[in-house]
Structures are given as structure tokens and as C-alpha cells.
Amino acid sequence: MIATERPVRQRIGRAACALFAIVVTTGAGAQVTRTVEYLDHMDTDGDGRVSLAEYQAWMRYGFDHMDRNGDGVLTADELPGGKGRPVTLSEHMAKLAATFNRQDTNRDGYLDARELAAPPQK
User: Fold this and answer.
1) Per-residue pLDDT tens for 39-70?
2) Model pTM?
3) Reported CATH class of domain 5-117
4) Could you give the dihedral angle defined by the CA atoms of residues 78, 80, 84 and 90, in that order, rounded to the nearest 10 degrees?
5) What b/e readout covers 80-109, taking b as 16+ CB neighbours within 10 angstroms?
6) Spatial contact of 41 and 28, defined as CB atoms under 8 Å apart
7) Fewer CB within 10 Å of terminal CB in the chain, N or C?
8) Phi, psi for residue 117 in degrees, rounded to 5
9) Which residues of 34-64 are buried (b: 16+ CB within 10 A; e: fewer)?
10) What are φ and ψ of residue 51, in 5° steps?
């Protein structure tokens, strides 16, 4: 990793954490308190597991909520604390995909309730 890459990744990571906190606290329109509720809300096709597309759609809510002008870029004034480098929707979606892939410990391309409940994988 290039020396200048680390701070950029840390800022994207902080923004992603803030976005996740918004999703958790607002619940994409519904409060979620148990893992099975996350699965029920994210699993839009009702197959008992969460695909990458379902995960990204659920987790995108925080980005969309913060992107007040709807331009697909979170600028400093839209980020928590009013500072930080801009975060694009594509960067956010890539970060979500990376998180999803780390959580998918059995590598089947889906998250089940156990994988959703697991601590974040590094």
C-alpha cells in the first residue's frame, strides 16, 4: 500500500462507519434490534439469505440519506462532523462489497443470519 493510501482508506472507513450507524439507528425506515430482523429486512426475495445486491441496497440507505443534493457524492458538508474528503457512491458500494465478502465466511455469495451476526471480519 502506498503511504498516502492509508489516510484515504481510513477516511472512507470512517464515512462507511457513520453510514452504517445511520442505517442501524434509522433502520432504513424501520428499527431493527435482532439479527433475524436484519435478515428479514435485507432479504427482499425471501430466500432466507442476503445477496450482495440486497446487502448493498439496504446499506445504501445511509448514503442516500446523507447525500442531500442527490449528486452521488458525499461532500464535506454532508459528512458527519462537516469534514473529510468527498466519498462517491461507487466508492461506498465498493466498500460495502468488500465488507460483504469478508462477512461471507463460507464463500457461497450470500450472508445468512450467522454471518450477519458475526463480528466484523478483517
Assistant:
1) 888 999 999 999 999 999 999 989 999 999 99
2) 0.69
3) mainly alpha
4) -60
5) eeeebeebeeebbeebbeebbeebbeeeee
6) yes
7) C
8) -80, -15
9) eeeebbebbbeeeeebbbbebbbebbbbbbe
10) -85, 170
